[in-house]
Amino acid sequence: MCKDCQYCVLKYNCREYKKAQNGTRMATQKKRVVFYVDEEIKEKLSELAANDRRSLSNWLENLAIKTIEDTGENNKVASAA
Questions:
Q1: Phi then psi for 38, rounded to 5 degrees?
Q2: CA-to-CA distance for 44 and 26, rounded, in angstroms?
Q3: In this structure, are residues 17 and 9 in contact, taking their beta carbons and an 8 Å threshold?
């Protein structure tokens, strides 16, 4: 990391860190979610994503975001205590 952001949590956004990587693309900082579905379901999901001109992964992420937004404040997930 550069001297200006030695305490930076997001080192992948650091200009000096990017320079050190010689311009190579960095992997996403998003978390991976893996689940299993039948082939028929995957094909249908892939078709829906293609209809929206999105990758399956991006389409599923947007579906999750919309679902979370639609549930609103009244349906907050209870934290385990």
A1: -65, 155
A2: 31
A3: no
Higher pLDDT, 46 or 17: 46
* Same-domain check for residues 4 and 23: yes
| Domain with 51 in it | 31-71
Tell whether 5 is covered by a domain: yes
38 within domain boundaries: yes
Pure H helices in 1-81: 15-20, 39-51, 56-71
Count of structural domains within the chain: 2
23-56: per-residue pLDDT in tens? 555 567 888 999 999 999 999 999 999 999 999 9
Does pTM top 0.70 for this prediction? no
Q: CB under 8 Å to 37, separation ≥6 — which residues?
A: 45
